[in-house]
Design brief:
12 helices, 2 strands, about 350 residues, two-stranded antiparallel sheet, globular, about 75% helix
Length: about 350
Amino acid sequence: MVSTIPAISDTLNLITLTPQNITMLIGIGFLGGTMSGLLGSGGAFIMTPAMMSLGVPGIMAVAANITHKFGKAIQGARKHNELGNVDKKLGLIMFLALFAGVRMAYYANSGIMEQLGEAYSNLYINSLFVLVLSFVTILITYDIAKRKKAVSKPNQAMKPSLLLNIPPVIYFPVAKVRVSLWIVLLVGLITGYLAGTVGVGGFVGVPAMIYLLGISPYVAAGTELFLAIFSGAYGAYLYTLNGYLDIRIVLLLYLGSLIGINIGAIATKIVTDLQIRLIMAITVGMVALSRAFSIPVNLVDTGHLAIKVQFMEILNLISNIVLFGSVITMVLILTCLIINKLIKKSSPVKNRS
């Protein structure tokens, strides 16, 4: 039994909040929050596909994610600011292009939903996930391999110097980089578009700041969360106007993410740069793979592919195992690293006593 949203009752249904779904949504919030605290708001890229796996329509999952990240970003940015990880100057300049990107994405997303229906909307979102996440995985993996072959500086980036020096060039004191205004605006535009399309743009914004602008992972994570305050607020406003928001989902996501994001932020002071890159590469790659398994099911829903129901169920099962299994494993690894660090810190005190 499902209830409907008055504004769009003919096209979308609200998810039924059974005890199992409530627990799953809180858990999704915790997992996404933990990864967000570590990687920036980009860690929440797992939340949209996770909600879709529970039966939430893609566009509603996007609306819930981008709305929930507004409040979560305030909490996370505050924590990172205390740790000195937020470059407000960089964030405010990127914000100029961010709004344009979010608005463009909203029109594309809502247009597909209204003209073609939920099946095509889900296919569009999953396809974009696969393309972008695969690119990000390749980029990060290449950088890790490059660092292993040659000794390089921690903040060295794979950046074309000619492009980054196109006037006007601006210096960002917290990030400690000097870069062209146009490159910063381009990163902001892309981040905003992805935020408006799949609910979060940080999974591209954070790597772009690290590998293109040469910013440390810590400052990239903190600055992206600061930026997410603006993209989250504007995206939430646009999607809410047309009835795509289920506030119940948002509140449940908050319950888990506000705890997880503090754990992730603390982990940035314990986990090394290389470990953050490895975690990002593995998690992003696994989420891309899980979305790839969902695309045949989307094609069946649109009528472009015919496969047996049993095979569809197998694909959905594999997709969920890859998605949740990889993220849970990464969170457990982070937790173990934090506990191990705390034990090592407390050992000298015990020995003295």
